Amino acid sequence: MAKYTRFIAVLLAAFFLFPGTSSAWQPYDTFFISHGTGGAGTRTFWMQDVYTVSHTAVGHGDQAMKQPADLFIAADDHLYIADKGNNRVIELNRDGEWVRAIGDAEGLGALKAPEGVFVRPSGDIYVADTGNQRIAVFDKGGTFVREYKKPEEGLMPASYFFVPVKVAVDDRGVMYIVSKGSYQGMVRMRGDSGEFTGFFGSNKTSGTWMDRLKRQIFTEEQLAREELKRPAEIGNVTIDQDGYIFATTTGVLNDQIRKLTAAGVNRFESLKSARFAASDQMVDVATDKRHFFYVLDRKENRYDAMISIYSPGGTQLFSFGKSRKVPQQRGVLSYPASIGIDSGNRLWVLDSDQSLAQAYDRTEFGDAVLTAAADYYIGDYEKSEANWNKVKSLNEIISLTYVGLGEVAQKQERTRDAMAYFKMSYDNQGYSEAFWTYRLEWIQQNFAYAAGVIVALWLLFRYGLRTLARNSTRRLPEPLVRVAAELKDAWYTLFHPYEGFYRIKGRKLSGFTMLLLLLLLVLAKMAALYWTGFIFRPVDLSRIRLWPELIGFLAPILAWVVANYLVSTVKDGEGRFRDVVQASLFAVVPYITLTMPILLLSNILVLEEGILYSSLHTVMWLWIGALFIISSQVIHNFDFVENIANSTITVVTIGILFLFISLTTGLSYNLYDFFYQLYKEVTVLA
């Protein structure tokens, strides 16, 4: 026994002498949101941490918080927290350690359920003293200075309830006050006199189509009895270092975050880059010195993120964090109420339910990617190169990395590298700019050779291939001569549709011809899927699902054939089913003939010249549509009005066919799922 005891002791000693590597997993996931262009779409990727859990500020005894409602980080990185349940404001240092409490026990300096706090660079502390319905101001020493109650004079309505819950002050001393239950917007007051200068930044009322219909058909008396729709009330306000006012609204899915100028103009409305998460529980915003902003979100969504990092233009980049009603890990919050960021990029989040403030520190990876992105957004591409390369070495998924490196390569006149980087990030606009330079350089170097090749090809076609085709046709077997003649009729129909369709009416075309046209149509579609230029179709080719694409392309043509034949038969049309099939194949010949020129244009044009590409695309589909309608008229011998009516009914019938197929498919799946679940239950019970 003693021998085994000594052996175990030696093993334990070795274990402690040579410890294994430890891992510091966070209690939440981090995600990167890639906003692709064109068909690339938006994709979300799991990512290494951008922020990790740091200090937790939890007071004890008299220093304990109770239902804290708001957080502000001053210029010296000290935290000021509106401690609502304890009727005070508390100050903590950068590490969350207690400094002091602000608010007197009695008198004018006594606070009652404060819900908002703001500290000016001078050190003056503005408190939204909700219970006392006022704004209370303390100097940097914590001494009460003055108060602002509801203005008795001026433009404020007498019936207005002034119940401040949040406050922010700009460099001029103008206060922007969020008042509870106010749909008119924020209360704007002058700091020197307390004069009310108007409501600011009110939300817009979103009307539905039913509301618009009511305004058209209801009388004034009926409209007066309708429930009045009011704009959603603003929930929070933040001012960044440039003086922009960020207004946060909960309970809405549009304009949850607005970046307002002093004139009340929302900067995000004019920015295509502004893409906010689909959440109606965004409660607060914090901005850093590089103009990124951090949104606190209470909603538990699919990716379970509590904090989202947005670019200066409003593009969501990263999200992380977790909230639970009963959290069991440090860093997981229960009811996040406010967010702030200090000069060292440390985030602090206030949890009202747990009465604590949780800090999150930026990682090396997070610092590299956000620093590089900040340089990229201000156009300093070369400065960002080192950080982008560092980010690339840590994580190759982030598409913004390749956009940044593409811009760097373009500045350094490495055009081909720039094109490759932009293609990796699915940035067709950047790729188009780089390709324009590459195309210009190629033309300057190879214009004479290109012109010679074009002339040679034209001469070969003019004097060689056409003569060879005429001579070879005479020596072809009879079946192939027939096929060649029928293909020639198909070409003739493109430009003389009435006469062309009359030629094939009642004729039985070769089955080989029909199969050949169908094969060419499928090949043209496949070429369009895989060979369209990246500028006009920026997609990941590996994600193309060929069979669904082909079925979706051919299904409308088949539906037209079936529906047109059925409808025309009822309308006493003369065409047989074979006639409809043959005419439909001739009608799609423009797709076969124009696809290659369109593909060629898509690979040599840039976005600014895209009107040529889109115009030819539009002409092709209009041409096909016209041929379908004319074919129906000729094959069934309808006059113009009858044909329009017949074609319209055909389109409606196609819609009914697709609806029937969808319902049948859905019901069949439900029936299969029912029997499958029944089988599983029987198997388990057995």
From TrEMBL:
The identity of this protein, by name, is Yip1 domain-containing protein
What the entry lists under SUPFAM superfamilies is as follows:
NHL repeat
In what way does this protein cross or attach to the membrane?
Answer: Multi-pass membrane protein
* Keyword flag Manganese: no
Q: Which residues cross the membrane?
A: 447-465, 509-530, 550-568, 580-605, 611-630, 651-672
Renumbered to this chain, the signal peptide range is 1-24
> Can you say where in the cell this protein is located?
Membrane
Gene3D superfamilies associated with the record? TolB, C-terminal domain
Tell me where the NHL repeats sit in this chain: 111-141
Q: Which InterPro entries match?
A: 6-blade_b-propeller_TolB-like, NHL_repeat, Yip1_dom
- Domain (Yip1): residue spans on this chain: 491-660
Q: Just give the chief location class.
A: membrane
Q: Which UniProt keywords apply?
A: Glycoprotein, Membrane, Repeat, Signal, Transmembrane, Transmembrane helix
- Out of the domains of life, which is the source? Bacteria
Gene Ontology terms, cellular component aspect?
membrane
